[in-house]
Design brief:
The protein is of the alpha+beta class. The protein has helices at 15-22, 25-31, 116-145, and strands at 2-11, 44-49, 60-70, 74-81, 84-96, 99-110. Strands 1-6-5-4-3-2 form a six-stranded antiparallel beta sheet, with helices on one face. A hairpin with a 3-residue loop joins strand 3 (60-70) and strand 4. 19% of the residues are buried.
């Protein structure tokens, strides 16, 4: 059985500004993990997820490949690391008034596999934390630009 994580966030910035936080290695490192990302289809890259000893997590390398890159509308990449195999991360940006609606999905969690439910829950917690951090960064940038 396959599960998907969904999140929808409205940012008070145009899609081009939100895109900059999604499609550059330096920006991704600020709110996600250190990486060697490049915004081009077929590029293979890695996120280095640091350990969290307080929850018994030793850290891992997540191997990814850019599958879609349509600036500033959509970014999709594969995501494989630890118990996660065959999952995809998708960011879709839609202009909404002066702002942007971000539709986030991480799909393909096979909860029937060993550690599948734990991987889904770990990813849910991780994405919640990371997407909140992205929102903070984008809001801080708005305030700093004023």
């Amino acid at each position: 059985m396959s599960e998907t994580i969904h999140r929808e966030i409205l940012f008070p910035k145009p899609p081009e500004a939100v895109w900059k936080s999604l499609a550059s290695s330096a920006a991704l490192s600020e709110w996600l993990y250190p990486n060697d990302f490049e915004p081009r289809i077929g590029h293979q890259f890695t996120f280095e997820v640091p350990p969290k000893p307080e929850v018994g997590f030793e850290g891992l390398s997540v191997h990814c490949e850019v599958l879609q890159c349509d600036e500033p509308n959509r970014l999709v990449f594969s995501w494989e690391g630890g118990a996660l195999v065959g999952t995809q991360v998708s960011f879709k940006l839609e202009r909404e008034g002066e702002g942007t609606r971000l539709l986030f999905e991480h799909s393909g969690f096979d909860i029937a596999k060993p550690f599948g439910k734990q991987a889904l829950q770990g990813a849910r917690n991780g994405w919640s934390e990371m997407l909140d951090k992205l929102a903070e960064i984008l809001l801080d940038n708005k305030e700093n630009a004023s």
